[in-house]
């Protein structure tokens, strides 16, 4: 396990991973200000989405949100660095602001220290991203995830710097596929359970992972009405009905890390748990 992560888990019942940083008003998701806000909201892990321009530069952005955030009809991954650098964000009120899309290098340099960085949606770029990351010497902070696909795992397995890795697993068979790679720094699993009948909602499956000395990452984020990442236990249920209808169940299932859009509220609940122990 990463030293920073181990120290944090020694002091907390679980870690809080903040989805795209904390955005509201004039502070926009997946930007340095949003990550500052997440840190101030007691984040332990910043979840950061990555794209690569057609000329090879890395930016922090979740593609598919171009119309909403940039007023663009084209996917940002089809743009050059000059084109991306010319764009201005729309804030949460839909107003054009002067803030530009952040380059990954600026985010890494800004948050060098003791905050953990989950660089997400980066797997299709690992051929050039992994060497790019090496120059920052931040392997104690960086956590990578990906779907279980051999092309991604082959790159990770062959890369000399062993970044911490957690596969995104939906079926138990995927665990064995990952474990077949001997040179991957496997520290845990992000488990997806679309319903209470899903394999990774079952206590015995979760316990089996923990017995391998691996951590469990569970998503409490609520993307929309149709997508369920951990049955119907999520941020919405936790806020509207009460933590016992969401976060409490996720914690009882054994989550070491919970991804959320509401870090301050989840931290309030975490502090309440700590005060009763």
Structure description:
The chain is α/β, with parallel strands linked by helices. The protein is built from twelve helices and ten strands. It is 34% helix and 17% strand. It has an eight-stranded parallel beta barrel, surrounded by five helices. The model has no long low-confidence stretch (mean pLDDT 97).
Quick summary of this structure?
The protein has 277 residues and is an alpha/beta fold.
Annotation keywords:
10 strands; TIM Barrel; eight-stranded parallel beta barrel; alpha/beta; 277 residues
Total E-strand runs: 10
Q: Count helical runs.
A: 12
Strand content: 15-25%
Shape: globular
State the domain count.
1
CATH class: Alpha Beta
Round the mean pLDDT to the nearest integer and report it.
97
Give the SSE map.
Elements: H1 3-11, E1 15-19, H2 32-40, E2 45-52, E3 58-60, H3 66-70, H4 81-85, H5 104-110, E4 116-120, H6 126-134, E5 142-147, H7 150-158, E6 164-169, H8 173-179, E7 185-186, E8 188-191, H9 203-210, E9 215-219, H10 235-240, H11 247-252, E10 257-260, H12 263-275
Parallel strand pairs: 1-2, 1-10, 2-4, 4-5, 5-6, 6-7, 6-8, 8-9, 9-10
Antiparallel strand pairs: 2-3
